[in-house]
Amino acid sequence: MFSSPIEVLSNYYGYKSFRRGQESIIESIVNKKDVVAIMPTGGGKSICYQIPAMMFDGLTIVVSPLISLMKDQVDALRETGIPASYINSSLTPKQYGNVLNGIRNDEFKLLYVAPERLLNEDFINLVVDKNVSQVAIDEAHCVSQWGHDFRSSYREIPRFIEVLREKPVITAFTATASNEVREDIEKLLLLKNPDHFITGFDRENLKINIVKNSDKRKYLLDYISKHKDESGIIYAATRKEVEKIHDLLDKRGVSVSRYHAGLSNKERTENQNGFIKDDISVMVATNAFGMGIDKPNIRWVMHFNMPQSIENYYQEIGRAGRDGDPSECTLLFTAGDVHIQKYLIDIGVDEPKRKLHQHKKLQDMIDLVYSNSCYRKNLLAYFGEEYDHECENCSNCLTAGQVVDKTLEAQKVISCVCRMKRPYGITTIVDVLRGSKNKKTLSFGFDKLSTYSIMKDYSAEDLKSFVNTLVSHGYLDLVESLGAGGRGSFPTIKLNEISFEILKGNVKVEFKEDLVTEAIEVKDELFEILRSLRKTIAEAQGVPPYIVFGDATLKNMAAKLPTSEEKMLEISGVGHVKYEKYGRQFEEAIREYLASNM
Ligand code: ADP
Fold first, then answer.
1. Are residues 67 and 192 in the same domain?
2. Residue 373 lies in a domain
3. Collapsing DSSP states into helix, strand and coil, what is residue 538?
4. What is the pTM for the complete model shown?
C-alpha cells in the first residue's frame, strides 16, 4: 500500500506534480468523503479516482458511458502497472467470464463498467460479497436530462450502489457545470453530503480564435497548409458539410479522414483508430465524434460551423491539447451558421420546453461570438467563473491593436439597403453595390440609385463577407422573407436601430483583422526519431502511440537527452513500469542520435 498520493503519481504515472485541483480532490476521496468534481475536459479527472483506488483496499468500480474508450483506458493503466479491466458489450462471453474470474480472485484495483451492465445478475452476485471501496462515476452529467448527453442507464446506478453490502465512497466527475446538472448529480446519484470541487474551467494552453469572416473555405485551406502535419479536428454541423470538407482536403493530398452518424460502425471505428494511432492527421467530423477520444496530442480544433451551445463548444475545443502543450481552437463564423443551428434545433427537438432551452443556449453561443472583449473571460463567466484580467491568448485580446475603422463602408451598405426599399438577399445587395448589369438589377431600376456601383472595387466574395460581418455584429438584421407569390422563404437583410445610428454617424463600426497563425509545433529531429520509435513499439503492442508515451514526454526527452535510468525517471511521464518496458530503447535512440550529431 502507498502512503501518499504523490508517491503513486510519481511511481506509476511518472508525473512529478499534480495539476490544479487534483490533490485536494484526492485527499477528500482518500478520507472517504463523497465528491462531486467539475473539471474541464483534459483537466486530468481520471487520476483523481485512480490514485485513491490504488490507496484503498478492495476494488474501485468506474462507471463510464464511453465504451470505445474503456479498452484504451485499461490498456493505459496496465502499461503503468495498475491492474485493471472492463466490462461492456464489446466483450465475448468468454472474455466476460475471464473478467468475472479476475474479480472473484481480487486481481483488479480498477474495473470500468458500462452503466447498462451494472445490474447484470452474474456481476451483481459476484460484487455484493466483494470489498468495493469506491464507485467513481465518470461523465456524471449523463444522469441529468438537462445535460447534453442524457443516458437513462445512468438512473440505474443508485440501485446498483444500494445492493452493495457497504456503501462505498461515491465520486462523480464531469466537465458540465450548469446548476441544474450539478443538483441532479447530487440528488439522483445518492451522494451523501459531498465535497464539491470546481477546479476552474480555464484551459490556459488553448488559444481561442473566433474568425468572423465568410470565406471559410479559403481560410480553412490556408490554415491546413500551415498545420497539416499536426493532429487536428474539423467540426462541421452536418454530414453533408463533413463530406464536402473531407473531399476538398482529400483531393489536395491532406492526410484526412471523416466521422459522422451516416457511416457504418465499421468505417467509423476504422477512421477513429487511424486518427488515434497517428496514421491520419486531420479528422473532419460532426459532433458525433469525440466522446470516445482521449488522444492527448490534438494540436488544433477548428469549428467550420458555430456549435449549438457554449457547453458543446467548450467540450469540443477541450479535446485539443490535453497534454498541456499550446494548442489552437478556431471557430469560423458567418451569419448562416445561426440559421443552420436554428433549423437543426427545430427539426431535432420535439418537446417545447426543451426546444426553448436549446434556443436559449444557442443565443448564448451567438452572444459569445459577437462579443468584442476577451473571449476567455466571457467563456469563463458563462461557467460562473471570474477571470480578472485579459487573457492575451484569444483573438479578441490578440488583435486588439489592429482595429480597422469600417464606418464609411458600413454606411454605404446601409444606405444602399435603405434605398432598395424592400428587403433583399445579400447577393442582390452586393450586385447593386458592385454595379452589376444583370437582369434583376436593371429591371428593378437599381442602377438609378445613388448607391449603385459605389463599392465596385470590392470582389463579390469580399463584399458578401463584409455584409455578413455587419450582420454578425448585429449592425444589420437577417430575417426570413416570403419568396415571390408567397412561395417558400429566404433570408433577407433589414435595417435595425443600430443601422440608423451608424448612418447618422453616432455609432462607429470597427472590426478586427483576422490572421492565420503559423504552426505551433517546431520540427525537432530527435523528437521525430523518438516519435517513430514510439510508433513501432505501439504497433507491435496493438495500442495507440500515446499509451506508450505522450508527446510532451517525448519532447521532454528530446530536450533533456536522458541516457541513464536515473535521468530517464526524471522525465515527466516515465514511471517505473514503463521505464522497465521501454526506457532502454529510448535511451539507446538518444545515444545513437548524440553519437551521430556530436
Ligand atoms: P479528463 O479530465 O478529460 O478526463 P484525463 O484524465 O484524460 O482528462 O487527463 C488528460 C491528460 O492529462 C492525460 O494524458 C493524463 O495522463 C494527463 N495528466 C493528468 N494529470 C497529470 C499530471 N498531474 N501531470 C501531467 N499530466 C497529467
1. yes
2. yes
3. helix
4. 0.69
